[in-house]
Amino acid sequence: MITDTIVKEFPEIGEIKIGILNIFIQHTSAALTINENADPTVRKDFETFINDLIPESYSKFIHNYEGPDDMPAHLKSSFFGSSVQIPISQGKLMLGTWQGVYLCEFRNFGGPRKLVLTAMGSS
Amino acid sequence: MITDTIVKEFPEIGEIKIGILNIFIQHTSAALTINENADPTVRKDFETFINDLIPESYSKFIHNYEGPDDMPAHLKSSFFGSSVQIPISQGKLMLGTWQGVYLCEFRNFGGPRKLVLTAMGSS
Amino acid sequence: MITDTIVKEFPEIGEIKIGILNIFIQHTSAALTINENADPTVRKDFETFINDLIPESYSKFIHNYEGPDDMPAHLKSSFFGSSVQIPISQGKLMLGTWQGVYLCEFRNFGGPRKLVLTAMGSS
After folding, report:
1. Quick one: closest CA in B to C56, which residue?
2. Complex ipTM, two decimals?
């Protein structure tokens, strides 16, 4: 969950009266999505389910020289997506009560991940 | 299908010469997507297929105190996404002939859903 | 992979100092996604996996008068999405080293596909 980090590290959100925050991840084996921000079991269930749906053991993958977790990570990345867009009003993110931003790491040993944040609108 | 409602309730679209409409749903058990707007059997097949893919009967979910339809709804929400972006040209949405905006309700008894619409561009 | 075509055909990207490029596909049986741009086996594995996940042989589809590949194409389209957003900085797309834009054709005999490109930001 990276919502708090984003708000803290990107004070430019506070200067926008009406607009959009775009968050983009510069990687193909991780993703961004918006989901339930309160109960950590939701994130646990996400991981369990997606690992069953797109398993490392799927026998037809031919792109496997970076390890069995690589190709599943690419697929999961496109299932969830590389960016999220969040409306801004009066300097605040217009997330619903239960919404938070997930950074989904799909590699078993992922390194640091780079995000690009862009806020647009009228100030 | 909510395309007509959006166009009717958000006349600001008509003031944009070139730009983007962002539609955002403030919930984690419903989603927005763009798909076939003509034949209602497409929406029926969406529901049948996604319920088979992410079934309430999946035995490993631990987040289940809100009922068996809750965790599947969270997952479906992230599969389809919380927002759609549609180009605007000369005050009109640039949807393709067969495209419409779906509001996907994933709870068995969902309540009212709130959307945030943001139109940006040059007027 | 359409990254190079986009950059070449849409020189307006070069005029944006900070902003966002939105790419939108006006079809419901094709999609856009961002993924690994180097090794073509990734794209091959995408196709193999998604065809197994959403098979033409799924027996419950009722929307099938356009052929057995039509309804799977609609579903795949919403799984991957109709648009991508890419940050622009100093006239260049801020894609990660391994990221490229995929145009995913899901029909067996798809025709030409129309994209709408919109660049917004400060110049």
Report:
1. B49
2. 0.96
